[in-house]
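Record 1 of the preview.
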Amino acid sequence: MKIQFKSVTVIVATLMFMACSYSAADQNASQGDTTATLTEQVAPAEPVLTEEGLSPVVIGANVKDLPDAVEGLYASKTFHKIDENLSDEEIGFDEIEGWHFLDKDGNLLFTAEENEGIIYRVIAKSPTIKTAQGAHVGMSRDEALKIEGAKLIKPDPEADYQIYSIELGKISMTLDYEKSQKVINMEAADYSILD
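->
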């Protein structure tokens, strides 16, 4: 009877040890899977311009809440002030007074304009930023117009600058000023914030 009890005890102990070993191995595998999943979630995706902007630089956000850098989106930000002594011709049509978001080499990726600290306009300047449909700065007018839902908007005949644009939902793509054949920027805006 003692021998059977010892045998049963040894067998139970062995089974428990094996179960614990498998459990630890499963737990380690699970933790590895979780780590991979967390890494995938943390790793930045290609920046996508939406009708709200470029998260976390979105319409309605307070500029004070924006981080100094967001991995995969921008490496630094700076406020760009236009010299008040310059004329409109010296400033240029596409000069933006507002926040400039730069890559690690100091190249301009996008800008944001704000009213009393609240962002109302986000403008993509780099071809690395795309819409969900694949529109990007640098694409041709014809390519942009092939996107489903894209509409060509002719300029106001009385405007100082005759600028064509393409609307893609609430995203506006500005075409180059001379020939209107290439997208030079894309913007998401809510001008009601200015009211």
